[in-house]
Amino acid sequence: MVVGELAHECDVIIIGGGPGGYHAAIRAAQLGRSVTLVEQDQLGGICLNKGCIPSKILTQSAEKFTSFQEGENWGLEGGGISFNLNKLQQYKQQKIEQLRAGVEALCQANKIEILNGSAFFLSEDKVGVEKGDKFDVFRFRNAIIATGGTPEKPPWARELSELVFDQHSISDLSEIPEKLLIYGSDYIALEIGMAFQALGSKVTMILDDGKEDFDFDQSICRELKRILKKKKIDIVKNSEVLELQHKEDMFTVTFELKGKIETISGTHLFVSTTIRPNTNQLGLSRIGVEQCAAGFIKVDAQSRTTQKHIFAVGDVTEGPALAVKAIKQGKTAAEAIAGIQSQSDFHFIPIVAHTQPPIASAGLTEKEAINMGNDIEIGQFSMSANGFSTLAGKKEGFIKVISCKEKQVLLGIHMVGTGAIELISAGITALEMAARDEDLIFPNYPHPSINEGLLEAVEALRNQAIHIPPKSKNEQKLKV
Amino acid sequence: MVVGELAHECDVIIIGGGPGGYHAAIRAAQLGRSVTLVEQDQLGGICLNKGCIPSKILTQSAEKFTSFQEGENWGLEGGGISFNLNKLQQYKQQKIEQLRAGVEALCQANKIEILNGSAFFLSEDKVGVEKGDKFDVFRFRNAIIATGGTPEKPPWARELSELVFDQHSISDLSEIPEKLLIYGSDYIALEIGMAFQALGSKVTMILDDGKEDFDFDQSICRELKRILKKKKIDIVKNSEVLELQHKEDMFTVTFELKGKIETISGTHLFVSTTIRPNTNQLGLSRIGVEQCAAGFIKVDAQSRTTQKHIFAVGDVTEGPALAVKAIKQGKTAAEAIAGIQSQSDFHFIPIVAHTQPPIASAGLTEKEAINMGNDIEIGQFSMSANGFSTLAGKKEGFIKVISCKEKQVLLGIHMVGTGAIELISAGITALEMAARDEDLIFPNYPHPSINEGLLEAVEALRNQAIHIPPKSKNEQKLKV
C-alpha cells in the first residue's frame, strides 16, 4: 500500500477508548495537544461497557437486596422482596449509556477527534484506521496504545468457551444461576460469587491454579473463609481442574484433590480469567515496540515503550489488569508527551472488592513485608468493637495495619468491612506520604464512624486501642 | 463535714463516664495509672445513651427507608414498605445496651473502678461521691472533669420545655411527627430534619438566631438548600422567634421576618440547642478552677485546667460540643497525667452530618480562609460526574477543596454526597500532614469509586479534572 501524501497529519493518536485511552486523550488535550482517539467498539471500553461498571451495578444491587432482607430490625416492614434481573439489566443499560454519553461529551468538549475503526501501525510514524471499506492513514508525532486485554480461559474451558462466563460476559447473564460454579481467587471471583449468592444462587468457588487461598493478606483470607462459610459458599482449594463437560444444561468440572478425582456440577460456570493483551492486530513487529514473553508491551514509569515516541497504557502493559492502573498510566503518558516528568507508581495501588462486606487493601501484605526483610509490627482492630459498625449491624471485618518496627512507617493497610473502599483512601494517602503511626493517631476522627476503626488499628500497634481489652501479662511477654 | 482519715486514697479520679471520661479512664489505665470513674447515670454518657448513637440509628433507618423506596430501579420488587418506629426503638435499645456492656467490660478489663453516684470537689485534692444515703470521700492525685453539658432551650421555649424535644430527648420520640418544626442550623438540626422527612414527616426548619444560612461552607449551604427544596423541607431564615404556644396538641411559633409578624404551626417541635456545661454541682469555686463567662472550664491543649493537677474534657470545656473533641481531650488528659506531652489540636476537627446525602467537612471554609488573609484557590468536583455515584444513583453533592495559592497547601475539604463521612479521613490525614495538591494527585484511587471525586476536586485546582469540561477561553481569562 502506498500512502504518501494521502496521510492525515495528526499530533497524538490514541488507539483504544477505554479508561486508559480516554484519560490519556483528555489529559493530552488539557495540555494543549491535538488528539485523535480511535475506538473500534464503544467509548469507555470494557471497563465502562462490560467490566467495572456493570459488575458494580450487580454488586450494589445484591448489597441492597441483602439490606432489604435485614430491614425488619430497622422498623421497615413490608411484603417479601423478590429480585428481577431483567429490571436490573435495564437499569444497567441506562447507566452505561449515561456514562458513555458523558465520556463522549467530554471528548467533544476537549476537541478530541473520535474515530470509529480498527487501528494498526504501518510504520514508526503512521497508523492505519480501517472501518468497513474505509481506510485512512494518520501520520502522528506521538501514539498511545490503549487496546486493553481479552480474558483468556484456561485450557480445560476453551472448548466450551462460548458457554462459560468470564469477567466481560457475566454482566449479560439473563437469569440468576441456580447453581453457580466459580473458578478464581481474585476480587472479581469474590464479587461475582458473593453477589449471586445474595441474589439466590448456590455458589461453589474453585480456587484457580491449585491455590490454597485468595489473593489478599492472610488475615483477610481467614476472615473471608469465615464469611463465605456463613454464606454457605463452598470453597475447593488445592485442586487441579482436569476436565469440563456440559450435558443437559449442566456443567461438570472434574478435578484432582489430594490424589483423588472428584467432580462438581452447576448450572453456570464463571471463570475469572487471566488477561491476554490485545496486540495481535497492532503490527507491533513493524515498529520495534518490545513485548515481554506473555505479549504485554514493556513500558517505563512514564508509560513509554521501547520506541520513545510511542506509549502504552492499561491492560496491554504488564502489571495488574485494573482500571486504576490504566487511568494513571494514561494521564502519565499524556503528561510525558507534553514534556512533564510525571511518573506512575503502583506500590500503593488499591485492590478493592465490592463484596459483602467490602474489602480494600493497599501496600504490603504481612507476608510480603516479612519476605522483604522488614521487622514489622501488626495493629489489628475488629469492626465488631467499633461503635458505628455495631449500631449499623455491620460488625463483620477488621482493619489491619502493617508498620516497620524500626522506622514506625506504615507499610500496608488491609480492610474488610462496611465503608472499607471509601476509607482506604485515608490509608493510601498515609502510605504515599510515608506516614508514621503518629500521623494517623494525631488527627481527629468523626464519632461514631467506621473511620475510628483505622485509628484504633494504628493505636493497636502501641497496644493503645481503647476498644481492645488489655493483653494479659503472658501475651505482653510473648510480644516482647 | 470532717473527712480526715476516712478518705479513700485514689490515683486518678474521673467524674463522668461519657466518651471523654471513659476514653480518659482507659488510656490512663493503659499507661499504668489506677483509675476511679464516677458516673451518676449510665456509662457511655449522653453520646451513647441519648445522643450520637441513637441519632445515628435513626438516620441509618431513614436512609434505609429511602433506599428501599428506590429499590425497584435495582430489580428489587415487593410490597409497599411501612415504617414501625416502635420496632426501631427496640433495635435502638438493644444496640445501646450492647455498646454500654462493651464499655463496661472494657473498663473492667482495664481494672477501672466504676462508682455510681454524684461527684463534687471538697477541696483541691478531695472529691465526695454521693449515692442515696451513702457518701464517700476520695483523695486523688489527679482528677479529670468529664461531666458534659445540658441542652439549654432558648428563652421563648423554656416555659414549654418539657414538651419541646432537644438533641437528648428526640431519640425517645414514640411516633413519627406529622408536622415537625425544627429550630436550628447545625448538623443535628439537619440530621433530624432529613431523617423525619424521609420517614414521612412534613418538616419546616427555622434557622436559629436569625441566621441566613447553615453552619457549613457556603457551597455546601447552597447545595443543602437545593436538596432541602427537592425534599420539600421548608426553610425560614433571617427570622426572630418571638413566642411559642402549645394548644390542642399543636405548637405555634410566632416570629418576625422582614418586619412582619408570622406564625407557623406543627405537631412537634425540635430545638437543636446550645449546650450549657454541667458544672453547677461540682464545687469548682472551692478548688480554683477557672471558667469562662459562659461557664465552660478553661483548659489548655493538654486539657489541663488552671489547677495543674486537674483536667477537664468534652462538653464541659469550651469549643464544639462534639464527642470527637471529648475523646481526643480525654486521651490527651490521661497522657498528660502519665507525663506524656501529647496535645489536642482541633484545627482539622471533622464536622459530619448523617443527612441524605451525608456531609463531611474539615479545615477552613472558603470564607474563613479568605478572612484569614489567604490567597486561595478552589477546586470543586460534582459527584454527578463521578462514575460510581452515577451507577449507584447517588449523584447529589460535590467535593470542594480549598488550597493556599502560594504554597499549594490544602486548607479545607468540604464534601456532600454518599460516602463523604468515610472519605473525609483521607482529607483529614492530608490536612494534618500539610499535604500539597500533588500529594493527593499522585496516589492511585480505586475505580470506580467516590474516592475519585476527591482526586478530581484536587485536579480541578489545576483545571485538570478529567471529568470536568474545559473552561471556555473567557472563563480562563477571568481566572487569570
Automatic annotation (TrEMBL), chains A, B:
Transmembrane segments: none
A GO CC annotation given for this chain: cytoplasm
Catalytic reaction list: N(6)-[(R)-dihydrolipoyl]-L-lysyl-[protein] + NAD(+) = N(6)-[(R)-lipoyl]-L-lysyl-[protein] + NADH + H(+)
Domain FAD/NAD(P)-binding: 11-330
Binding-site residues for FAD, renumbered to this chain: 56, 315
Listed cofactors: FAD
UniProt cofactor note: Binds 1 FAD per subunit.
Pfam families per UniProt: Pyr_redox_2 (PF07992), Pyr_redox_dim (PF02852)
Keyword set, alphabetical order: Disulfide bond, FAD, Flavoprotein, NAD, Nucleotide-binding, Oxidoreductase, Redox-active center
Note: The active site is a redox-active disulfide bond.
Family: Belongs to the class-I pyridine nucleotide-disulfide oxidoreductase family.
Name of the protein in its database record: Dihydrolipoyl dehydrogenase
Organism listed in the record: Cytobacillus firmus
Lineage: Bacteria, Bacillati, Bacillota, Bacilli, Bacillales
